[in-house]
């Protein structure tokens, strides 16, 4: 059996995360629990807390598959002599799996039940995925089947998302240790809130820029086992490799 084109997996992963976030926001606001919730705030009270666990748990299950497909694609597009690059990809796929572990911790422990575990899990997921996306965006230059313009867009998106997450970390730290109180905190709250959602959506959507690369992979199931191979593609004369 052969399945040609595996881009459906990251597409499903992105749709699941974004749709889940939309449902969580809707439930939290309509229930009156919080009018301007951070993502973590949507997992504090039922019924949205149940949805929160389901969304991020399924995401942490699908995530390793996406990271592994990316790893296989990069291996197929490298030469055996590029040992440093291969080692780097092994480190990156490990980071991808660590992100999923952090995501599962984030799913099981809410800000109400265990704030410390929740912050560690969510922080690991956000920082790890930003690092993963940025490194892969750099590595894909010269290896991706996407156009040169798409490679520029992908790297720019990774850089912007990383900057947003740094600003988010600074903002969250300032709010948590109450460096800014009263009217100042109210004004500061909205930019930090928007930074979190922009960062989350940026991390998710960037996976869609790899569509052409994932679509070039083929899953084969035979008596010898399961293998993921790269379909040969005809070079684009306007964008030669």
Describe this structure in words.
Residues 234-241 have low confidence and may be disordered. The protein is mainly alpha-helical and 241 residues long. The protein has one domain. It is globular. It has a three-stranded antiparallel sheet. It has seven helices and three strands, in the order βαααααααββ. A hairpin with a 2-residue loop joins strand 2 (217-222) and strand 3 (225-230).
Per DSSP, what share of the residues sits in E-state strands of 2 or more residues? Answer: 5-15%
Q: Work out the helicity level.
A: 55-70%
Largest sheet: 3 strands, antiparallel
Task: Strand order, main sheet: write it out.
Answer: 1-2-3
Number-wise, the strands total 3
In total, the number of domains comes to 1
Structural class: mainly alpha
Low-confidence stretches: 234-241
**In DSSP terms, counting alpha (H) and pi (I) runs of 4 or more, how many helices?**
7
Question: Taking all residues together, what is the mean pLDDT?
Answer: 87
- What is the first-to-last residue Cα distance? 30 Å
């Amino acid at each position: 059996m052969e399945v040609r084109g595996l881009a459906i997996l990251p597409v499903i992963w992105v749709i699941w995360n974004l749709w889940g976030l939309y449902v969580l926001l809707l439930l939290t606001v309509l229930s009156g629990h919080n009018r301007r919730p951070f993502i973590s705030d949507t997992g504090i009270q039922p019924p949205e807390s149940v949805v929160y666990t389901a969304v991020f748990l399924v995401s942490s299950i699908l995530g390793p598959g996406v990271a592994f497909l990316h790893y296989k694609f990069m291996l197929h597009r490298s030469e055996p002599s590029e040992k440093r690059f291969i080692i780097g990809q092994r480190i990156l796929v490990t980071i991808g799996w660590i992100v999923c572990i952090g995501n599962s911790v984030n799913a099981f422990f809410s800000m109400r039940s265990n704030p410390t575990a929740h912050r560690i899990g969510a922080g690991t997921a956000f920082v790890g995925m930003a690092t993963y996306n940025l490194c892969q965006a750099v590595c894909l230059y010269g290896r991706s089947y996407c156009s040169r313009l798409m490679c520029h867009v992908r790297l720019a998106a990774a850089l912007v998302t990383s900057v947003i997450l740094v600003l988010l970390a600074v903002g969250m730290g300032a709010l948590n240790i109450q460096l800014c109180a009263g009217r100042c905190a109210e004004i500061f709250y909205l930019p930090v809130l928007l930074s979190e959602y922009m960062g989350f959506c940026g991390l998710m959507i960037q996976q869609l820029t790899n569509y052409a690369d994932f679509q070039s992979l083929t899953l084969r199931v035979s008596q010898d086992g399961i293998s993921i191979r790269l379909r040969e593609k005809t070079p684009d004369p306007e964008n030669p490799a």
